[in-house]
Task: structure prediction
Amino acid sequence: MENSEDQRIGGRLRREVNLVVLTAMMIGINIGGSLFVLTGIAAGSTGPSLFIAQIISALPVLLALIPYMTLTSAIPATAANYQYAKLFSYPLAVGAGMVLLVAIPCGGLPLFAIGAGQSLQALIPGIPVIPAAIITMTLFYLINLIGIKPVGYVQLTMIVVLLLALITFIASGIPAIEADNLTPLFPEGAMGLIAASALLYTLLAGGLFGIEIGEEVKDAKSTIPKALIISMVIVTVIYLLIEMVAVGVIDWKIFAGKNLEIPARVFLSGPVLGFFIIGGGILACVTSINLTITAAGRYALAFAEDGFFPSFFANINKRFGTPHWGLTLPYFMSVIVLLINPPLETLGAMLNFGLIFIITLVLLTAFRLPKRHPEIYENAKFRVSPKILAITSLSAMSINIIFMILLAIALKGAFLIFLGAAIVGIILYFILRKVVPCPITH
Result:
């Protein structure tokens, strides 16, 4: 493959992210607006069994950790999920990348921004949600423009406060749990539980997209797998405890469709409640906005390097070392969606579908890695037996496919947007296949 550095105009991406900062990034992209916005919607589908739905939704992500650690310890890359998917099928990877470039700015970023706006409104009654969301989005777009180091250290600072706020919620809420609120455990039956699981997928899967800045991580082959494990363990434990408190302190029907501020008001008040809204609700959303913009910008950059986007998206700013045009595209797309203001459930389903599609292709790459790309498999610093790699990849992929079907049904007509994006990507590949570079193999 032609060195991607040679295709970039201007400066270079800078290797400035260490283990602590990367772990904070992964925690932040996981504990985000989805936790505060989608948890209540999922509770409306499954009631007190919310934490069980979380366990089900976490299974494919936790299984995927082994394939992801293998790949990232062998070939760290920019827009890594896309790069790994190319090793399975280049045209499908381009289609999945196009879907993700729709799902992030049209689903994820608006979802997180609205979550931040709602939390600000809870803190300052009367403040309009959408203008607040656009202002928040703009702030973190500007931070991303000035470099990966500011992005990382802003993220690290916010994560410390965020974790303190969530620990406050958990420690204060556990004594307030009432057994009566946890029965019946499955008020909406098995289908409600499965639907909630599919909706909650993004709560943990987001961490798998902390790998997208592989070229900007110090000692990336060792650092990225470590950060994946540390962040996933921390986030999984926090999620389960928060969800048990959320449905344990209040009737799930009251919580359904609302955010975590509602159960928090049962046992928090005054300055402590304000701290939870600011440090928990607002920072959870903005930490996800911060890193999601980062990832989306790298996808636009990768698509330009492969010839599917205009070449100016591959420009790297000489002063800041960031893909300014690549960051600008998802920012403006998300602002347009915010002005349209679609339902939150639709935004969440769009984000989840985009994540699952490309993750599934990466799992297929890992499944075939020892035979199809033995040189990459042998180069991995974290390497398990081919049998374990195959079992974890196929198990995670099977659950993902079920979730994708459920989300496609939930999206209804909006699913056609994704179908169109995938078709456009595949057609672009076959039109331009004589000029696109080969998949990464080193």
User: Anything to note?
Assistant: The mean pLDDT is 88. Residues 96 and 358 are 5 Å apart (CA to CA). The two ends are 8 Å apart (CA to CA).
